[in-house]
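> example.struct
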């Protein structure tokens, strides 16, 4: 199969974002699972289960709330960025950590809104860490506004959205936060 061009990836990102908001989404996911090699589906399911467990453990430990939603409830700025990172990685254009996780061998991986198109494995989360209190750490990934910081009464809500084996980290200001 030919590798898509970057322009095709951009178009596919928008098309998939539309699809996640359409009634055909569930049928599409079922069809995609039927078409993919069974071993790949199994690996992806295992990696997804691992992410979900890890997710819940972290949330329980820190007293965060965790929930299962699907992409239809996340705002387009989140879905578009997440899908773009995923597709770029699948096409082989993305950056990865030194362990070079591959999309065709699903394992739990992480990405962040502030490091576009970078995918790292579980051992390399430090590559996505932001310095506490730095301007980037106080920047909303939705509107790009730099908040004053929690000590001034306005901070960033860090959140993680998972899609399959990918954990995607981002920060949203009070106005861009889409959950209660
Ligand atoms: Zn790594
Ligand atoms: Zn914002």
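> example.seq
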């Amino acid at each position: 199969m030919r590798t898509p061009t970057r322009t095709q990836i951009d178009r596919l990102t928008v098309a998939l974002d539309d699809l996640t908001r359409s009634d055909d989404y569930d049928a599409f996911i079922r069809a995609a699972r039927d078409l993919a090699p069974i071993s790949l589906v199994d690996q992806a399911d295992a990696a997804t289960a691992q992410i979900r467990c890890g997710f819940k453990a972290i949330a329980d430990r820190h007293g965060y709330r965790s929930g299962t939603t699907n992409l239809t409830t996340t705002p387009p700025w989140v879905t578009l960025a997440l899908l773009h990172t995923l597709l770029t990685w699948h096409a082989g254009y993305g950056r990865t950590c030194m362990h070079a996780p591959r999309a065709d061998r699903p394992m739990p991986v992480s990405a962040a809104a502030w490091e576009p198109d970078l995918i790292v494995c579980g051992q390399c989360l430090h590559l996505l860490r932001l310095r506490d209190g730095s301007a980037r750490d106080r920047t909303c990934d939705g509107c790009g506004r730099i908040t004053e910081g929690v000590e001034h009464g306005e901070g960033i809500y860090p959140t993680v959205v998972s899609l399959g084996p990918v954990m995607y980290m981002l920060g949203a200001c009070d106005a861009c936060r889409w959950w209660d």
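> remarks
The chain has a mean pLDDT of 87.
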